[in-house]
Write a structure and sequence with these properties.
- It is a single chain.
- By secondary structure, the chain is mostly helical.
- The chain has eleven helices and two strands, in the order αααααααααβααβ.
- A two-stranded parallel sheet has the order 1-2.
- It starts with 5 loop residues before the first helix and ends in a 16-residue tail after the last strand.
Amino acid sequence: MKQRCFWATHASPLIQHYHDTSWGVPVFDDHHLFKMLVMESAHAGLSWEMILKREVAYIEAYEGFDPYRVAHFDQDKVDQMMQTSIIKHRGKIEASIVQAQKVIDIIQEHGSFAHYLWSYVNHQPLITYRDPHTWNATSELSDQVSIDLQKRGMKFVGSKIIQAYLQAIGIINDHDTDCFLCHQGEPHD
């Protein structure tokens, strides 16, 4: 049996699959990075399993998470989205439209959203080698990214959300030291 992170060991098969195949895997695609930002923002105050169960609905409602499309969503589109099976939180949906606009600004400034995010860690995953019984909801890195995104006008990007986001997209490899994925993405000589 695989030794997983403590939080995934006794989780549902959906969460275990997410842990084994997606969580902590480095992401460099801007659409996927935007998708994960929206989903992590929607996750605030809710279980991640609830969000994962609605992933297909999110993909449909957000038209594939193309930030250039989402940036032009209007109130009629928000009203339509409120009728889908995504989390019905008008504030989070409206914030995601602003996030799309700001992601586009970042792409124009840095060449890609991925380049902007990965530049915080010199384009190499930050491996924490975390003890299974120690969990930090935030970090210096999540504080820095959160502050910058908020200065750019984004909402629902507090340090806790950004910490979860950076873990999910592999910028922070925060697998437990005894997890079979802990050293994945570690630079090789």
